[in-house]
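Researcher: Quick test of sequence recovery. Tokens follow.
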């Protein structure tokens, strides 16, 4: 129906995979940021969130000359750690998303946390796209910065193409061993049954336009119902953090609905439900990472989907991974408190 198509929220996309496959670097490449180099030991240890407005996606994909209109306002991407000790964060991220990118290092193929991530996604029937990353590391690779993958593949020597095909075939075989059909995205004629592989480089940006376009097209084509904006607030606490000048804050992902400054909210606390009032709704600038300190934009209200930092009193004992509830005029506070503590 036309009306619902015009009121879509941004899809939430989680990026997952084994440690050091290039998840954060891929996001840096799209954002034009340097988050990965600022990480301790080059390891992601928190969930992140970045909002990509549709106009940035349009700009980044224009060389693909896709006539398809972008119907979603943007894309909210959740970065997750690949290190084995952060299974809980991968689970939290995958639990939130509408669609996912599963990153595989072309030089390594499937690795333990690739398979763990894959199983988390399958458990929730979440659609995903495989980014076969680090193609620039193939011996003799000739880079065309930010080029669509088919274009750059044509520039490669026969040897490079052969090595690429050999490694691709290995990866497809490894997925098959996990019970999954996969295929290069531009050869995939059965999207939905066969998962698409997009070769990428986070260093040169090659294949990144393809990845972005496929993500947006695939989600707005197959998830209209799921992505139709609803006024019912659906919101999850990602992290609880002390921020200088703001006290204890919570980073949340607003999946659906609208939050307002001054809303009465309830979150799960270690010593019982926390009832408080939103003092400030903060977001980083578009294309900036929520988990990285920076300047914040202040909002009177925010519509889903967004990654938001909320300041309020009494958040010290809030529990990450649980729901945030808004107390509406019709709601019974005790019921909302019970709901919050059930998480
Ligand atoms: P965790 O979050 O810790 O699991 O790692 P990650 O998957 O986010 O990988 P990260 O972005 O930290 O990248 C790991 C290393 O691989 C860094 O040294 C990157 O510079 C490098 N790297 C990432 N993508 C590419 C790529 O496409 N090509 C090359 N050559 N190096 C890459
Ligand atoms: Mg990372
Ligand atoms: Na890393």
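Model:
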């Amino acid at each position: 129906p036309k009306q619902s198509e015009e009121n879509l929220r941004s899809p939430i996309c989680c990026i997952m995979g084994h440690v050091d496959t290039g998840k954060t670097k891929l996001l840096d490449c799209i954002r034009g940021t340097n988050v990965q180099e600022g990480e301790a030991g080059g390891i992601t240890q928190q969930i992140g969130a970045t909002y990509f407005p549709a106009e940035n996606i349009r700009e980044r994909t224009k060389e693909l000359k896709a006539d398809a209109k972008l119907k979603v306002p943007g894309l909210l991407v959740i970065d997750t750690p690949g290190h084995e000790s952060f299974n809980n964060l991968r689970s939290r991220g995958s639990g939130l998303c509408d669609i996912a990118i599963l990153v595989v290092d072309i030089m390594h193929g499937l690795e333990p946390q690739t398979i763990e991530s894959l199983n988390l996604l399958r458990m929730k029937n979440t659609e995903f796209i495989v980014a076969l990353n680090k193609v620039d590391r193939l011996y003799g690779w000739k880079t065309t910065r930010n080029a669509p993958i088919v274009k750059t593949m044509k520039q490669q020597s026969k040897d490079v193409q052969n090595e690429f095909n050999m490694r691709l075939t290995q990866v497809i075989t490894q997925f098959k061993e996990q019970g999954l059909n996969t295929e290069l995205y531009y050869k995939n004629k059965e999207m939905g049954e066969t998962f698409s592989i997009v070769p990428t480089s986070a260093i040169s940006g090659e294949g990144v336009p393809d990845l972005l376009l496929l993500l947006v097209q695939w989600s707005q084509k197959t998830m209209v119902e799921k992505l139709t904006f609803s006024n019912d607030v659906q919101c999850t606490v990602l992290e609880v953090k002390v921020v200088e000048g703001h006290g204890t804050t919570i980073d949340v992902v607003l999946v659906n609905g609208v939050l307002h400054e001054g809303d009465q909210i309830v979150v799960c606390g270690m010593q019982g439900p926390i009832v408080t009032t939103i003092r400030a709704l903060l977001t980083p600038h578009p294309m900036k990472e929520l988990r990285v300190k920076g300047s914040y934009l202040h909002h009177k209200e925010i519509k889903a989907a967004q990654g938001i930092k909320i300041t309020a009193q009494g958040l010290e004992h809030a529990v990450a991974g649980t729901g945030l509830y808004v107390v509406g005029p019709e709601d019974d506070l005790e019921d909302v408190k019970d709901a919050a503590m059930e998480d």
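Residues 17, 19-25, 36, 42-44, 81-83, 133-134, 136-137, 201-203 surround guanosine-5'-triphosphate (ligand 1) (CB under 6 Å).
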